[in-house]
Amino acid sequence: MVQETFREVLGDEPYFTTPFRLLPVSRNNKCHTTMNMTEIKTAPALNDILDLEKQVWMALVEGNANSDRALLSADFLGVYPTGFANRDDHVGQFADAPTMAEFDLSDARLRVLTPDIVLLSYRAEYLRPGATRRDTMLISSLWERRNDVWVNSFSQDTPLQEI
Q1: Sequence ranges of the domains in the chain
Q2: CA–CA separation, 124 vs 135, rounded Å?
Q3: Residue 96, exposed/middle/buried by CB under 10 A (0-12, 13-18, 19+)?
Q4: Cα torsion through 143, 148, 149, 153, rounded to 10
Q5: Which candidate, 65, 66, 93, 99, places its Cα nearest to that of 78?
Q6: Residues 112-155 pLDDT 10s
Q7: Rounded to an integer, what distance in angstroms lies between the CA atom of residue 157 and that of residue 135?
Q8: Are 117 and 142 a contacting pair, CB within 8 Å?
Q9: 46-159 under CATH 1.25.40.10, yes or no
Q10: Could you count the other beta carbons within 10 Å of the beta carbon of residue 143?
Q11: What is the C-alpha R_g of the chain?
Q12: Using CA atoms, how far apart are residues 89 and 78, in angstroms rounded to an integer?
């Protein structure tokens, strides 16, 4: 019997379980502590997060620093072939002009870490303004739902070498 198992582990005081902790109950089955009821959130779909990622890329194409800033968390960390970057560094690249002329995202996959934290990984082919050759990177972006708003808190770009 499950309750007997808890008694063996925890002593004579009866307990009941929640997904996160054991709470003691009195003999009349009333909780000694008040449970915090939280809203059950569902994880986003791949296309929902991919659409947010495309908004970051569109900000690069349009040179829209305000849009870029709104999509990145204040503690954003970028890991790029050129080094580490924070949100101000990422937004600062718009000082002169747009940094992308066009892009194509493919082979996207989403790893759900929690309903509020997901890792998007994909292949990006892009053309910089004035360039004649497209470059390709594999990118992983960590998206977090903070105060019911999705923000990009981490991104790592890995150049894909032609074989």
Answers
A1: 1-37, 46-159
A2: 8
A3: exposed
A4: -30
A5: 93
A6: 999 999 999 999 999 999 999 999 999 999 999 999 999 999 99
A7: 12
A8: yes
A9: no
A10: 25
A11: 23
A12: 9
> Residue 52: in which H helix or E strand, if any?
helix 46-62
Residue 141, H or E segment: strand 135-146
Instruction: Enumerate the β-bridge partners of residue 143.
Output: 118, 152
Model pTM score: 0.75
Which tokens go with 53? 């990622």
Quote the CA–CA distance of 62 and 56 in Å, as a whole number.
10
The two most distant CA atoms of the chain are separated, in Å, by: 76
Quote the CA–CA distance of 67 and 105 in Å, as a whole number.
19
66-122 pLDDT per residue, tens: 999 999 999 999 999 999 999 999 999 887 789 999 999 999 999 999 999 999 999
Strand partners, 124: 105, 137
Query: From the CB of residue 94, how many other CB atoms can be counted at a distance below 10 Å?
Result: 19
